[in-house]
Structure formats: C-alpha cells, structure tokens
Fold:
Amino acid sequence: MKILETTGAPGAIGPYSQGYEVNGFVFTSGQIPVDPATGAAPEGIAAQADQSCKNVGAILKAAGLDFSKVVKTTCFLADMGDFAAFNEVYAKYFVSKPARSCVAVKDLPKGVLCEIEAIAVK
Structure:
C-alpha cells in the first residue's frame, strides 16, 4: 500500500490521507473545494465543483493517473437543487463517464457545497 500525498490538493484536515494506491487501484479521499494555495473555497456551486475536480485531479496525478482512469465516483451535495449546475462542471472533467453515486447530505466540512471522491485503476 502506498499513501498518496500532494501539495496540489488540500492537506487532510483530520486523521486520514489524501489518497491510497493499493493493488492497482487508487482511492481518493473526498475532496472539498478548498484551494490548496489559499485554504479558501470559492463562491457558488460551479466554482466549487471546479475546485473539487481540480483537487481530485491533483491526487490522481500524484499516482501517475488522469481522469480517464476513474471507474467510480461518489459525489456529495449540500443541496440537490445544485445537481444540474454541478453536473455541468463534473462532465468537463469526468469525460469517460465513470460509475457514480450522487447524494445530498445535511452538511459538508467548512460549509462547502460539494465534495467528490474517486476510485481509479492503474
């Protein structure tokens, strides 16, 4: 097992890793839309979805992968009313259309609007 760590995504804010590589799979932790350079989240669902995707991409890159190798995502939204706007941004990154679950949750860390986790294959 190999822990994945990159400065291209926010550091863990709890007792977990940004990602793991094990037996040919890469598992990312859920990525909220925090800019790793500033520690702040942008305003609005489109900008937040974009930043969450960039954070997932940075972890994939640390494993030598890109979005085309993602086979499953789980997406969390603070408001299912943001579903269409979220999808519009998500579709620009996950062009291979991996399997996905997308659910609304009561709250997300730091009061953000979305979070994305991914499983990819090497």
About this structure: The chain has a mean pLDDT of 97. Residues 45-62 form the longest helix (18 residues).
